[in-house]
Design brief:
alpha+beta, four-stranded antiparallel sheet
Amino acid sequence: MGVLAAAALLLFAAPFIAAQENTRPVYVTGGEDINAINAASEFRIGIHAYNRYSFNEAIHSFERSLSYRPGEAIIMDWLGKAYYRSGLENTALRQWRAAADAYGRNSGPGMILANRVETVANRRLLLPVANDDVRYIESGRYPGRYDDYILYRQPTSVLPQGDGSAWVVAYGSNEIVKIDVNGVVKDRKRGPLNGFDRPYDLVRGVGGKMYLSEYRGGRVSVLSPQGEWLAYIGSKGLQPGMFVGPQNMAVDEDGYLYVVDYGNQRISKFDPDGVYVLSFGARSPLFPGFLSPTGIAARGGRIYAADSVEKCIYMFDPNGNYLGILTGGLSGPESLRFISDGRLLAADTNRVLLIDVDSAIMRELGMVAGNPRVRVVGADMDSNGNLLAANFAASEVSVLTRIDDLASGLFVQIERVFAERFPEVTVEIKVEDRLRRPIVGLEALNFYLSEGGREVYEQRFLQPSYRVSRSDVSVLVERSPETAALRDDLAAAARDISGALGAQGKILSFISAGEQPQRERHENALETAARGRTAEYSPRWRFDLGLRLAATDLLSGEKKRSVVYVGSGRVGELGFEQYSLSEMAAYLANNGIVFNAVLVGAGPPAEEIRYLCRETGGQALPLYRPEGIREMIESVAFIPVGLYTISYRSLLPTDFGRAWLPIEAEVYLMERSGRDSSGYFPPLE
């Protein structure tokens, strides 16, 4: 008997299998226990409903099953899963705690459940990441040498990618190398025929293209999103638009490129086409002039530039006018990079600092201390929330992880099991951190699946969801008296959403959020669907019911998905009459659905709208802002998704399809790991 099968406490065959206190199950014979048979039947119905995303139906079946077998651990476990996917996290936690007690806290399933409870319960109480003081510690390294083989030398910069990998600029080996989350080099680029000449920094520009500064070459290379060389900007020299030792770079919101021209002690600005605009940084009555300019970052109409000799960060406007000192007291600042929450990462000798540009408050995030040779030249945050620090002196990249994440490990959930083609079995596994952030970039070597305590046979790693570019959207239109006067705007929003999705995206459903929310026929009449019928507009319109319906329509669609709400930004008096705000946020987040809002009319969005966006990774933008909403809609195709699909061939006996077959998944990433257990019924024979 395998570990999972022995510890599950309740397995299903015909007749029903009961469990004793410890390990091995005992078969109930001759139909003597009709409650066990009924419980098994309802449990099977619940499992199939769960795998069809019919979570309410699954809840009802599991509750009926539990009424026949009160206190049965595996039923409570699955009931908790169904409540969790329905957004009812408090109820899920109660079921999981009871199941953990029934399993036994020291049993395998009991320990898995205890970890799940701790993760979900703590996540609900945590402050946002940006506001805590958790430190980062080294969890791994991407070494530049493997035995006698040189992988790369003297890294100066890292540029994280959406798939969890990162481009590493290798100054010493004249190349850029792409490294995945396991430290495996997946690609390398050495430039045009004459090659790169001491590449130093790499940044992303408009349309995904990249800029690579070449320190000794005195130029900037323009690269495609895949790293192929396209063109040069500038050349070696002293004149405007020329360089002597270009180093760090930044791109602002309008696509302008700023290059630190170290040898000329200035910063040069170029437009998105590479045309020279201006230079700044010379000594003036207000500004002392650069002595050793290093890192640079641009955001919100300000340019931030570090000076390693003066050990401070200066501020300028986009025209090069000096605005003052952001902060001083640094040790030897090098690169500066903004992260998604608007704060600044600074590489400072052997440490990485976090700086709030509004308050100038600075704190140390982490230190690279695992190697006697340390000079952190560049640092950035990857898609999984880790810090990547380019250690020039040690010729390696250090990976720093939040100490809490390292202690709690990975949050692994077996989301779905397909066994319709048994013995071919396909499993969907979601991998997140403790704050529900997806872990992307994992490969086959990160997963270990076992069935009945033995490694599965012919395990195959299928295309992970983060690599899929297709996306689905469900449009939710507010039918309130306020939007009744804005029907032309609703139609314009629908057109813009459809246009931004393009060929890779699809409007899966169109929901009118009136007093009784309903689906509109929209395939060939999008503007008509957006305008709706006059009778649909009501002061008793229901935001929660409409949002629930819109989200439910996405469950069986693409894994990159979003509800796009179009409305005034207010949720109305009955906005959360049936489902609470926290329940709706959990329903979206636990099913990987991003909430985006397109605002028509005047006024800012209500806090409830902001909360849903914040909890799911979405945005709230006005329809008629100068930049439009295209970027927000296009971003759905780039949502990070930590969902992985693995198939294998089962060797377990099925008892003609009546056996409950256990499965366990373990996931490893450097010093972190996590696991989950589940099970399935094969088809009846």
